[in-house]
Amino acid sequence: MLMCRELAGIASDYIDGELTTGRNLSVKMHLMMCRPCRSFIGNLRTSTELMRRHTASHVEAAVIDRINQRISEALGARPERKD
Amino acid sequence: MIQQTDLDERRLVEALKRGDSSAYAQAVSQFSPGMLAVARYYLDTGSAEDIVQDCWVTVIDAIQKFEGRSGLKTWLHRIVANRCKNRLRSTHREIPTDFSERLDPELASRFDASGRWATPPKLRFDASAEALLENEALSNCLDKHLAHLPETQRSALILYEAHQHRSDDVCNILDVSASNLRVMLHRARQKIFLMVETFQETGQC
Ligand SMILES: [Zn+2]
Fold first, then answer.
1. Which of A24, A42, B90, B104 could be cross-linked to B190 through a Cys-Cys bond (beta carbons 3.0 to 4.6 Å apart)?
2. Is 0.90 surpassed by the pTM of this model?
3. Chain A residues near residue B139 by CB distance under 8 angstroms
């Protein structure tokens, strides 16, 4: 029988659908009977979604500016292309 | 059926090939966050930014040969990864790895000897991720905790979660095995779970 500690260790794989069919089934069975683990999985899902949204575009504008600067210098220095 | 995003990407690539500066500006803001995440996985912050800048300059010529087999994002991330790996080879810097345990120590301490919860999770987070993020204090707290994650975990997280790379792409770019990637994701998610729980309970970060 899957214990709560073990479930917590594979919860992230469960969320991503990375478990084998057998493992997946034993997680589902455990969740039916165990309320704390249901809360855990639900909260871990929310945390994952939170990070997904939060980290999407996190770079300082100054860094982007410096990159754009380098590119326009490089584009400017380039010989004209004959199209 | 051709997806709209594929079409957008093809137009963008064509504009980059022409040397269109506004296309570069768009591409830089769209792809640099992921490229920096890759570089910071391997190098310190300053060197990481240098590498990404250098890569963009290389892209101006290299894009002429881009055939679109891998998607622009993956292509760019691979260029950065390869450069970083070459740099590492010359300085012999080791990538730190500690993948012995699937559970964060703080989370592991919440189970009793039989493997049951000794300190169970507090009730379900009562709001969706979207609603939670409207709380500015929580959002700042998330920033703080993300900044404290080991670079390796943060990069894996950003590439997998935010940039929605497939696992095998992330493994390839970061040079880790699939199981190591899984452990990094587990550990990072667990840390954020613990943070949100503390925040929900105490209002403290
Ligand atoms: Zn349980």
1. B104
2. no
3. 54
